[in-house]
Fold these 3 entries.
Entry 1:
Amino acid sequence: MNLLFLHGWGFDRHLWDALRPLLPQGEHAVDDRGYFCAQHRPEITAPFLAVTHSFGTMRLLNDPPAGLTGVVAINGFSRFARSEAGPGVPRRVIAQMLAGFDADPARVLRQFRAGCGVTDAIPPIDAAMLRDDLVMLRDGTAPTPTVPVLSLEGGRDHLLDPDTRAAQFPGTPLERREHPDAGHMLPLTHSAWCAQQIGAFAGALAS
């Protein structure tokens, strides 16, 4: 099964460096939103499975490429912010981040990444792109997926609480798997577990 990878807000294509070598052979196409470099949305041969992290799930569902047969949403969501439609991250948290962007966008990004347990130095950023996508996180709801979804979740995810995780992907053919000790960065912290789940899901879709 060919695989398309989409990272989340504040990260880049290197998020997948630990996970990809553990996955089945096949074509791997790795998207980069362009927060730190030129934007890259690769072509991929159909049929394919999308492997997404966090906001990468919303990005995929807002513009799904032809040939998509399933989604593995790792710490993923179709809606991020709390609204009348259901639970989510409090909008005041996102408003505080947006306010901070006007003064020091790199500082806001460093704080967000540190909260996820990632303290590596960051290269120069595309602040406008990051801000636009933060607005999308505040206001957006992705369309309901029309393909099967496997949701891989962290029991200690500090961004997505249990109610928020349970509310994702309504009306979708959905399987959920939770690692009780994991947080919001499953591709980095529990890559072997993710690979096992992805391999089983891809095999089931291909059978």
Entry 2:
Amino acid sequence: MNEQPPVIRVIDASVHVKSKVLLDGVSCTAPSGAVTGLIGPNGSGKTTLLSLVARWRRPSSGTVCIDGQPVEEFGRREYARRVAVVEQHVATELDLTVEQVVGLGAIPHRTGWAVPSSVADVDDHLAAMRIGHLRSRTWQTLSGGERQRTQVARALAQRPEVIVLDEPTNHLDPAAAYDLLARVRQSGRTALVALHDLSLAAEFCDRLVILDHGALVAEGPPHEVLTSELLADVYGLDAEVVAHPRSGRPLIVTCGTVDGPKR
């Protein structure tokens, strides 16, 4: 795909908590309309970086910008109209129905009590995430995967420019995970997605940002940055990267770990 101007730009961002460095001078971008994947081992800094874009925390140093404007300069409602966030874990005692949860996406667009009909109508989003049959189910009765799909539908109902997702495929079976990412991609929105599954990242992401120990290791299209050498250095995997016979996208064939047993 043609390179688009960045909607999200992270500039030399660091996060320190006491003596621990969670992010160390990371700079990266997410182009307009593209799906950018954040990948790396556990503890690499993926969720910390997402938390800066989501405004859950401020960097110890550095800047995060949306459309060239530092995120802290946006008003709360204005930011919610631009950026929707899907968290990895959502804990709530409220027992709203699925339809009500998805309808929460309209809140940033309210004017008084009025909600624009194009935003308020949740039917399309329920259908898009294949959860129309769950519309009357309450949150506390949903499985982890059903909650994830409901949260993505709610985020899309915000009609944001940017959608930020932290491990959205957790709790999903392979078909549901594939379907969820396909629908995020088809939405045409700028997406920043933290993923553990390297195969899904290679298949659905236009661009990858690879972190390790809080530092940027590589950034670029999957076919450029996913190499056998990188997988060995970052993940400790003994693997080959080949072209998928149908899609042509990178396909990772794992033979074992660098220091462990082989198949």
Entry 3:
Amino acid sequence: MKANPNWYNIHEAFRLNGIRYAFEDLGEIGYSLVKEGEDFEIGIGDFLMDWASEKPTLEVQTSGSTGTPKTVVLKKAQMINSARATGAHFELSEGDSALLCLPCTGIAGKMMLVRAMVLGLRLDYVRPSSDPLSDTSKGYDFVAMVPLQLQNSLKHLDRIKALIVGGAPVSVMLRNQVKTLKTQVFETYGMTETITHIASKKLSDESSRFFRVLPNVNISQDDRGCLVIDAPNIAEDSINTNDLVDLVDENTFQWLGRADSIINSGGVKLVPEQIEEKISEVMTHRFFLTGLPDEKLGQKLVLLIENGNLDKTEVLENLTKLKNLSKYEIPKEVVLLENFAETSTGKILRADTVQKIR
């Protein structure tokens, strides 16, 4: 008799919004959410029906925050391995409570469901928003957010035991704000191809400046200085990223920025993410840097800020006072936009935002 695939094994402690579901229930509850649920519940329903199918793989769409969205095919068995690695790394236990506040259209939301089913978590879900904890008064052992959600949830974090934040870099200002909290906050590194995070760093720990990889993950660099990931439990082949890194040792690295976002301005190569890190010490509004065509320089460094009421001259004057900025790292132009293009959770879609000013 052929054994059932391992994704059929739903932990008996698994609860979704307080209700226990077995594997046999997933297709029905998924169909119900798709047909009768709210708009954000459709993604949850679609995923549950996909998980309940006999097909051993899932198709997952990338967010498109760093480029054109694409479809990635993932094995359910590898998603289970990722969930177990997360459970071990963050010391999650059967019966722990968790909150899903990310869209289930992307890998981060889907994996919260997988972790709950595999590890036996009591998972609640709320509508994905930029301030998700305002929609619930409950406390949770484990939550995943993007940086904007974390920023808007600071006043509620006394209800959260451990929180992982990913999808975009955490600013210096936000890192400083979480250092004093009792909540354990971890910044994570990962992508759809790695089935969410393969490394993390504890933001409340002064000594934790670098990402440390999870078990069974090996890292190296290619000839561009970009991270190469070997993680046989979650990916059959090596994953060559576009992320520039400094390798500290075989388990630890510092993320520097993306190779495909380097700006060549007058022969000087600028890494926007490194400059953003410096600027974030003084910026109170959402912002990012990009390169735009320039007749003299080839590309010029441009600062985009989400706020229409700032004084551009004053912004540039404040940046020139930053001692850690070189003259090449001071933007040549400031562009004010009323709103950035973003996902439902507030993750900035850089390429779409830049298109607004081209």
